[in-house]
Design brief:
about 80% helix, mainly alpha, globular, 8 helices
Length: about 170
């Protein structure tokens, strides 16, 4: 019962923070609420006893990606950000809601067609060793190669940000 209550609290924090992150006009508030979302996801990982994934979520995403995001915001000059207010028009909101509804319908059709919802509830628990081998393995359907590509990409972004910030005018 306590796990269900904690899950509901974390889900509410994630949903509210995600909506505020998207809806706010301030970049720093958006980054702060993105951090709350990522901490909430880490909390769910800890709730289901996947401590490795929870620690990776905090260190890589909540720590690294959010700091990279804030670093990129700080690199952009204040003059560039001053004229960035945009008024939402009714047509854009209707188009966005329609696109979200179509996307949700497509996901549900795929989930129901592939019987994913019935297969997603395993009868036995997945051992942590298997999760670790899948995340850090180099074989087929394992994720160490994409992880390395993403780390090189983030390094290139950081170097590009430093080059842009040091450019003499």
């Amino acid at each position: 019962m306590a796990n269900i209550v904690m899950f509901c609290i974390l889900a509410a924090v994630i949903l509210v923070s995600a909506v505020i992150c998207v809806a706010t006009k301030s970049f720093m508030r958006a980054a702060t609420f993105l951090l709350f979302v990522l901490f909430g996801v880490a909390g769910i990982y800890f709730l289901i006893d996947y401590t490795f994934l929870g620690a990776a979520q905090i260190s890589v995403y909540a720590g690294g990606v959010t700091m990279l995001y804030i670093f990129a915001i700080q690199l952009v000059s204040k003059r560039t950000l001053q004229g960035l207010t945009e008024r939402l028009k009714g047509g854009k909101m209707v188009a966005g809601a329609l696109a979200a509804l179509v996307g949700f319908a497509m996901v549900m059709v795929i989930l129901l067609k592939q019987k994913f919802l019935t297969l997603a509830i395993p009868n036995e628990e997945v051992p942590m060793e298997q999760v670790g081998n899948t995340l850090m393995g180099a074989g087929k359907y394992q994720y160490v190669l994409p992880f390395e590509f993403i780390s090189v990409f983030l390094l290139a972004c950081i170097i590009g940000g430093i080059v842009i910030s040091r450019k003499d005018k």
